Each structure stands twice: as structure tokens, then as C-alpha cells.
């Protein structure tokens, strides 16, 4: 097979492919057997019809057409690999010559492919790179936020006789109607005003309503067979409640934690905040590095790929192609594709190993974002065949982190920050040291030579443990003065390091 490549643009190529008749022969034989197995000819058992009879009955062009259609994907993949292109999107294929139509076994199958491809990206030397981040503040306000979150977990809901306000808890009844048809209704649904995780416009409709009052607003349905359609939604709060928080005193500290005093609890919350801030620094630096790469690198994107992604997004929202919302998301879609190209280029230049802990940590974060229990979320992804896609995202994320280890990261005061990441060279040193370590069988001899070796060769530098923003800070061990059975509520539900969503 011969393949000639013509570059049409940085993101599009044309392949001119010629396949000799001899390479097409197996496909012709397979096509003949396929047709023989699908038809019934008097005097022959199904599937046992001779090739000559099949050709006589259906004609050589029909067999060749079947052979070409079945073999074209394989020939295209071989041509793409031979041309060393990285396809993006669907290929456009045109067959220009089919050999053997006249009964001969000469000539070539000739086809032309126009294909969008990933652009070639020249990555910089990351040791010369510097990014700046605004460090997460660990001050009294940060501690107070954590303390208030803990108090909320021990708070109680109390009914109030006034119109509903932002942050109030309501038990509501809702009914959605399109025209004269009632689409859906629910009763006694608990909701906190301001969460914004139900229907668009619900928060605004509830604010100002007292228990028992009713109002109607227009909103687009978020699910079901009428997803994306506008409906008249009637809502009635049956009760309005506020959460009363316990006093932040020593008594509360004993109730909610392993500590005897509120000062001890606050000190522990501050320590947790500092651990999360360390993870946040990595997350912020990773995003800052990606933003800088997107700003400085030339990363063109095939227009057809953008169009496909926009239309897919519209379809998921129940909208038709050409909907005005498509233009609203086009810029973000383009940026997301550029980011993926850059991360893939990074991944190709670095050997990144994704372990089960990396994958599970990432999945736990995603499940928290969607408000789904982790095991249930993993089952949903597995059933929809998305685990491999998630694995790719984790791998790209780790590749960016490996690159970040070579980058100088500063805060807004110009101070260089140590993120505790392991550079590629340090990982290599560790691997070399591990490979040179004596085996168990060699241990006696190695022990005798330890002193001499130590003098001749310095010990390999141990790489610092890699920190990942995706991992939760470990729970604080209970001090000896408290029983082990009494677990700190604050420590058992540490807030994970905040992740800035990647493009």
C-alpha cells in the first residue's frame, strides 16, 4: 500500500492511498462468502454457494463494492499510521478507482481521504517557566468558615412566621404545566433557597412567599421527555424554617470533636485549613500553568471539531443545531479543545503512570461535585462506558503536574513556593536507586559491603512525596487523653482542597 500526504492546513491533511489488487483479494473472498451466507439459491445449501455462482448471480461489481466497503476502514487506519497523523473528527473518504471490475486481477484500489488532525505543538522548556498564584489565605476568617460549617451540621431547623428569605429552608409543593397538560408534580420536597440546584427561577419565586402562599413562574424543564421545554411552574412553600446554630463554646467543642475547649478545636480547624491550602496551591498553579500555555502557544483547532462539540452540547440540552446558545458556548468549547490538545502533547512527552488511588481520588471529587455517592457514581460511569475517558483525564492531569514540578511558582509577593512535587529527574534517580538495590538473596553480602559502598558512592536523593490536590488531608489522630472511640466530627469530614475546574 502506498500513501502520499498533502498538508492542507495546520489541522487538515489529504491522504492519497493506493492498495494493490493482491492486498484487496482477502476482502473480496470474505465479501463473496458473506453474500453466499446471506442468500438462498436453489440447488445449493445456504453458505455453501461456490464463488463463481455468487459472482454469476450478483455480478462482480456488487462483490467488489461489498469488499471495498468492508475493508476501507482497515486500509484507512493503516494509511493514517503510515502517514503518522493524529486524526481528529470524522474523515471524508472518496473512492476514485476500484480494480478488477473487468474481471482482471490488476490495478489498485485508489481512495482519497481528507482528515482533520491534531496540530503539532512545540512545548517550551518548563525549567525557564514562571507562574504566579494568589495563595489561599489561612486566617481567622478561614477558620471561622470551617467552624460555622461544623456548627451547621449540629444545627436545628426552626419554623419562622415570616416571608421566605435567601438561605431559608422550605418544604414545597410544585406542579409543572405545558399548555393544558400537567407534566409533573411533587409534594413535600425539601429545598434550601439559594442552592440553585432545581429549576431556574425557583429561588426568585420563593423569596418573599410565606408558608401556604402560591406563585407561578416560567422555567425550562431540566429532565424527562420534555427537557428543555418551557413550562408554567406553580410553587407553594408549606413551611419556612431557619437553621439555628449552637453556640461556639467549650460545650460545643466537646459535642462535635475530640477536644475539650473551643480554642483547641479552632487550632485543629486551622491546621486542616493549612493542609487544604497546600493542596489548593498545587491546583491553582496547575491551572495557572495551563492558562499560560494556552495564552502563549499556537494551538489551532479544526472548525468541524468545534461544530461537532457545540452541536453535541445543544443536543444534550434538547436544543436544535443553530440555536443561539451555540454561539454563547463556542468560545469556551474552543478553549476546552485547545486545552486537551496541549495536555495530550504534554502526556506524550512524559511517562505518566496512573494508579488506582489516582483514579479513585479523581472519581470521588467528581462524585462530590455532582452530589452522588462515590460507588453509585462509579457504577453510572461504568454502565455508560466512560471510565476510559475519565482515565484519560486523570492521565492528562498528572502530566500537567509532572511539568509543573519543573516550573518556578511564586505568590503575589514574589516568594518562590515549594509545592512538594517530584521532578522527572528526581523520579529517575529513585528508579535507578531502586534497580541497584540488592535483592533478598544478596542481602548478606550487601550488608558486609555497606560501609565501603557508602564511602564510595553517595546515597541517591530521595524524591519528596508527591502531593495531589485531589487527595483529602488525612484525619488528625486523637490525642492520648481522649478515648479512641470518640471521633472528631470536623476531622472526619474535612473539606477537600478546592479544585478549579480545568478547561
Low-confidence stretches: 438-503
Approximate strand percentage:
15-25%
Oligomer: single chain
What count of helical segments does DSSP give? Answer: 15
Helix/strand-derived category reads: alpha+beta
Principal-axis shape: extended
Rounded to an integer in angstroms, the radius of gyration calculated over CA atoms is 32 Å
Mean pLDDT: 81
Order of helices and strands: EEHHHEEEHEEEHEEHHHHHHHEHHH
Helix content: 40-55%
What's the story with the biggest beta sheet?
Answer: 5 strands, antiparallel
Terminal Cα span: 40 Å
Number of strands: 11
Task: Write structural notes for this entry.
The protein has 503 residues and is of the alpha+beta class. 44% of the residues lie in helices and 17% in strands. The chain has 15 helices and eleven strands. The longest helix has 35 residues, at 262-296. The chain starts with a strand and ends in an 11-residue tail after the last helix. The model is unreliable at 438-503 (pLDDT under 50).
Summary keywords:
503 residues; alpha+beta; 5-stranded antiparallel beta sheet; 4-stranded antiparallel beta sheet; 44% helix; 17% strand; disordered C terminus
Write the layout of secondary structure elements.
Layout (H helix, E strand, L loop, with lengths): L1 E8 L2 E9 H18 L12 H8 L1 H24 L8 E6 L10 E9 L13 E4 L6 H14 L2 E4 L9 E10 L2 E12 L9 H5 L8 E6 L9 E15 L5 H7 L5 H35 L6 H14 L8 H24 L7 H15 L3 H10 L3 H18 L3 E4 L12 H13 L6 H14 L32 H4 L11
Parallel strand pairs: 5-11
Antiparallel strand pairs: 1-2, 2-4, 3-4, 6-10, 7-8, 7-10, 9-10
Amino acid at each position: 500500500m502506498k500513501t502520499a500526504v498533502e498538508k492542507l492546513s495546520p489541522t487538515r491533511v489529504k491522504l492519497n492511498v493506493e492498495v494493490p489488487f493482491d492486498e484487496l483479494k482477502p476482502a473480496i473472498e470474505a465479501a463473496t462468502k458473506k453474500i453466499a451466507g446471506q442468500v438462498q439459491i436453489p440447488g445449493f445449501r445456504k453458505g455453501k454457494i461456490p464463488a463463481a455462482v455468487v459472482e454469476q448471480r450478483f455480478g462482480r461489481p456488487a462483490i467488489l463494492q461489498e469488499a471495498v466497503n468492508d475493508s476501507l476502514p482497515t486500509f484507512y487506519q493503516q494509511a493514517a499510521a503510515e502517514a503518522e497523523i493524529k486524526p481528529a473528527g470524522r474523515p471524508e473518504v472518496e473512492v476514485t478507482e476500484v480494480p478488477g471490475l473487468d474481471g482482471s486481477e490488476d490495478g489498485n484500489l485508489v481512495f482519497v481521504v481528507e482528515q482533520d488532525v491534531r496540530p503539532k505543538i512545540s512545548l517550551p522548556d518548563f525549567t525557564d517557566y514562571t507562574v504566579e498564584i494568589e495563595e489561599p489565605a489561612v486566617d481567622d476568617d478561614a477558620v471561622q468558615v470551617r467552624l460555622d460549617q461544623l456548627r451547621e451540621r449540629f444545627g436545628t431547623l426552626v419554623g419562622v412566621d415570616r416571608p421566605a428569605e435567601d438561605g431559608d429552608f422550605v418544604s414545597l409543593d410544585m406542579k409543572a404545566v405545558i399548555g393544558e397538560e400537567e407534566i409533573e408534580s411533587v409534594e413535600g420536597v425539601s429545598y434550601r433557597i439559594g442552592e440553585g440546584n432545581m429549576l431556574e427561577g425557583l429561588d426568585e419565586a420563593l423569596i418573599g412567599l410565606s408558608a401556604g402562599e402560591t406563585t407561578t413562574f416560567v422555567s425550562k424543564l431540566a429532565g424527562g421527555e420534555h427537557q428543555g421545554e418551557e413550562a408554567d411552574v406553580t410553587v407553594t412553600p408549606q413551611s419556612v424554617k431557619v437553621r439555628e446554630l449552637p453556640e461556639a463554646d467549650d460545650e460545643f467543642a466537646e459535642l462535635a470533636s475530640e477536644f475539650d475547649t473551643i480554642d483547641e478545636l479552632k487550632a485543629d480547624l486551622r491546621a486542616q485549613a493549612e493542609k487544604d491550602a497546600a493542596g489548593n496551591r498545587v491546583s491553582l498553579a496547575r491551572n495557572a500553568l495551563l492558562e499560560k500555555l494556552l495564552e502563549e502557544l499556537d494551538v489551532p483547532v479544526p472548525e468541524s471539531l468545534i461544530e461537532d462539540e457545540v452541536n453535541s452540547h445543544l443536543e444534550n440540552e434538547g436544543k436544535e443545531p443553530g440555536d443561539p446558545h451555540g454561539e454563547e458556548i463556542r468560545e469556551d468549547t474552543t478553549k476546552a479543545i485547545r486545552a486537551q490538545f496541549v495536555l495530550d502533547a504534554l502526556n506524550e512527552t512524559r511517562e505518566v503512570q496512573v494508579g488506582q488511588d489516582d483514579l479513585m481520588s479523581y472519581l470521588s471529587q467528581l462524585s462530590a461535585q455532582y452530589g452522588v455517592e462515590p460507588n453509585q457514581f462509579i457504577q453510572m460511569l461504568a454502565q455508560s462506558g466512560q471510565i476510559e475517558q475519565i482515565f484519560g483525564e486523570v492521565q492528562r492531569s498528572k502530566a500537567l503536574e509532572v511539568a509543573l514540578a519543573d516550573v518556578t511558582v511564586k505568590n503575589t509577593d514574589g516568594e518562590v513556593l515549594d509545592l512538594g512535587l517530584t521532578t522527572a529527574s528526581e523520579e529517575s534517580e529513585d528508579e535507578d536507586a531502586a534497580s541497584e538495590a540488592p535483592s533478598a538473596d544478596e542481602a548478606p553480602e550487601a550488608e558486609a559491603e555497606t560501609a565501603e559502598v557508602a564511602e564510595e558512592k553517595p546515597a541517591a536523593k530521595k524524591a519528596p512525596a508527591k502531593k495531589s490536590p485531589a487527595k483529602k488531608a488525612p484525619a488528625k489522630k486523637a490525642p492520648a487523653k481522649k478515648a479512641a472511640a470518640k471521633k472528631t466530627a470536623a476531622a472526619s469530614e474535612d473539606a477537600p482542597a478546592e479544585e478549579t475546574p480545568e478547561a
